[in-house]
Specification:
Blueprint lengths: L3 H4 L2 H10 L11 H14 L3 E4 L8 E6 L8 E7 L18 E2 L4 E3 L7 H16 L8 E6 L10 H4 L3 H5 L2 E6 L9 E7 L1 E10 L3 E2 L8 H25 L10 E9 L5 E2 L2 E10 L5 H14 L4 E8 L13 H12 L4 E6 L5 H6 L4 E3 L16 E3 H18 L3
Parallel strand pairs: 3-6, 3-7, 7-16, 8-15
Antiparallel strand pairs: 1-2, 2-6, 4-5, 5-17, 9-13, 9-14, 10-12, 11-13
Helix pairs in contact: 2-4, 4-11, 9-11
Bound molecules: zinc ion (ZN).
Cofactor: Zn(2+)
Keywords: Cytoplasm, Hydrolase, Metal-binding, Zinc
Pfam family, one: Peptidase_M20
């Protein structure tokens, strides 16, 4: 019964409507999202444009609120429409039901990652428009596809298009993370993801011999070197309480394959590592190190990459970035405790930064357990509505820079 005060709230209603659209991997259908967003655009009296940067299954929808000085670089408020798969048997509420319990917790996939933020942008804009506000800069609110698969068909190709360049974006905002305490994390950079495969060839033969240069010996050497490197990073993290995981390079062995038969020394073994290169790591030096280890153990090893992201400079969080100052001013006035840091995983922000545009990752969800990609993902309704107020202030500030 007590959930009714939230159920009757207009913005909670829109949020729940959006959550009920199962835009879920592996085969998300974005058409219902587009239909919903077209309805929102109409209600907000804003134009909406839909682009397809990769293929006709993966749209990018953009609502635009023109500024008083539309020639100025614009503000991009980005969110992704797709959500990760669910295992309904592990949920206490239907994952696309958007149930509200008596504590006001809204349960659905996407409540935290990140249908919340997309709808909070629109809710903030709705309130600002109703109050008669206008801003210097044009504001684009973008809804992209495929973020959960690395943005292959979404933001990654979109930033390279003329359509994107025509938006003339000067500053972008995108997702952050929930936090269980009072602090709200603010992400200004991401590590570079490298998925490194070592294809190790060696002397093949009978398992009863002691042949030289076997693939197994080389595999042992490479794994040892990678694990030594990993250990140094573990120690850095342990020895310095100031550091968080995003500050160091992470290395994890994720796949091993090869072999022919249990009594045959194989001609080829493969080992794969997931590497997240910290901002302080020289990419070229790291790559040279990998090759040197291959040479040191006798060669015959080919390195390939499933992913090899370039070094992307962080967004400045100092006086040199007027958008940061505007963001900070807004959050200071709201007395929020903002904790700038480097993102652990990857988001679409990296593609925005990669084309030279400053971008901040921010989801105003403090005092909230971190449940992205987890069962029973939820967001408390008052936290959601508080986030709308926070975005009203931030948008007003950054759009008037
Ligand atoms: Zn996300």
């Amino acid at each position: 019964m007590s959930a009714s005060k939230w159920e009757s709230d207009e913005e909670i209603q829109y949020f729940r409507e959006y959550l009920r659209i199962p835009s879920v991997h592996p085969d998300p259908d974005y058409e219902p999202c587009l239909a919903f967003l077209r309805g929102q655009a109409k209600q907000l009296n804003l134009p909406i444009a839909v682009y397809y940067p990769a293929n006709d299954l993966n749209p990018v929808a953009i609502l635009t609120w023109e500024g008083l000085e539309p020639e100025l670089p614009s503000i991009l408020l980005n969110s992704h429409m797709d959500v990760v798969p669910v295992f309904p048997e592990n949920w206490t509420h239907p994952p696309f039901g958007a149930d509200i319990d008596e504590e006001g917790r809204i349960f659905a996939r996407g409540t935290q990652d990140m249908k919340c933020v997309g709808m909070q942008y629109l809710a903030a804009i709705r309130a600002l428009k109703r109050s008669g506000a206008r801003f210097k800069r044009t504001i684009h609110i973008s809804f992209v596809a495929d973020e959960e698969m690395g943005g292959r068909y979404g933001m990654r190709p979109f930033v390279t298009t003329d359509d994107f360049r025509a938006l003339n974006v000067g500053f972008g905002m995108d997702e952050g993370l929930a936090s269980p305490g009072e602090d709200i994390p603010l992400f200004y950079a991401e590590r570079a993801v490298w998925r490194v495969y070592f294809h190790i060839s060696g002397t093949a033969g009978h398992g009863s011999l002691l042949l030289p240069n076997t693939a197994g010996e080389k595999l042992n050497y490479i794994v040892g070197k990678m694990m030594e490197f990993r250990k140094v990073q573990v120690q850095r993290l342990q020895n310095n309480p100031e550091l968080v995981i995003g500050d160091v390079t992470t290395i994890n062995l994720t796949k091993v394959s090869g072999g022919v038969q249990s009594n045959v020394v194989p001609p080829l073994l493969m080992v794969c590592f997931d590497c997240r290169l910290a901002l302080d790591l020289d990419h070229q030096e790291f790559e040279e190190k990998l090759h040197k280890w291959c040479d040191d153990v006798g060669g015959g090893i080919e390195i390939t990459y499933e992913q090899k992201q370039p070094k992307v400079p962080p967004t400045a969080i100092d006086d040199s970035n007027p958008f940061w100052l505007a963001f900070k001013k807004a959050t200071d006035e709201l007395k929020l405790s903002i904790k700038p840091q480097i993102f652990t995983g990857g988001t679409d922000s990296r593609y925005i930064r990669q084309v030279g545009i400053p971008a901040l990752g921010f989801s105003p969800m403090n005092n909230t357990p971190v449940l992205l990609h987890d069962h029973d993902e939820f967001l408390q309704a008052d936290t959601y509505l508080r986030g709308v107020e926070i975005f009203k202030k931030i948008i007003s500030s950054v759009a008037n820079v």
